[in-house]
Design a protein that fits this description.
164 residues; single chain; 44% helix; two-stranded antiparallel sheet; mainly alpha
């Protein structure tokens, strides 16, 4: 009798767990609650930059030097740019095995690597999230090639660039 009850409880527990996993997180909604002294990243960076400039002015006035002028940027003198090319299913040695003048010029003028170690699961979105954040899928939580949009709908293999 005890075995039957334990078996029933185990089967029910398994069934509820399976249903919970199967239904996913469609009904879970997250909302951000503003905290005291909450500020955006841009506001925090602007305040930090203003503080650094103020400290630099104080040092400059004590040393007798004038504050330097803001640098002017001419065309092409912008911040460094990283171009990340990811082609799902494209092995790194394919570049050596075929004629790829565009990629050859990009790697010779910039940088490249053949030392990438794939993560598990080796799917596009988990790999991209790992490369962008530096943490594994167990930490960033993206484990499949699908994502949930802002409205909660599951998007399979999204092609809408606004999701990026």
């Amino acid at each position: 009798m005890v075995r039957a009850v334990l078996t029933l409880v185990a089967v029910l527990l398994f069934a509820f767990t399976f249903l919970f996993i199967w239904s996913g997180s469609e009904s879970i909604a997250f909302s951000r609650v503003a905290m005291e002294n909450d500020a955006s990243t841009q506001e925090l960076l602007a305040a930090h930059l203003a503080k650094l400039r103020k400290e630099a002015r104080e040092v400059d006035t004590s040393s007798g030097f004038d504050e330097p002028d803001e640098p002017t940027m001419s065309e092409g003198d912008g911040p460094p740019v990283v171009l990340w090319v990811s082609i799902p299913g494209f092995r790194g040695d394919y570049l050596d095995k075929s004629e790829t003048p565009f990629f050859d010029s990009m790697t010779s003028d910039g940088g490249s690597t053949t030392k990438l170690r794939p993560i598990f699961p080796s799917l596009s979105y988990p790999a991209h999230a790992t490369l962008a954040t530096g943490v594994l899928p167990g930490k960033h939580g993206i484990v499949a090639d699908r994502m949930r949009g802002a409205d909660g709908a599951v998007v399979e293999n999204p092609t809408d660039t606004s999701l990026l």
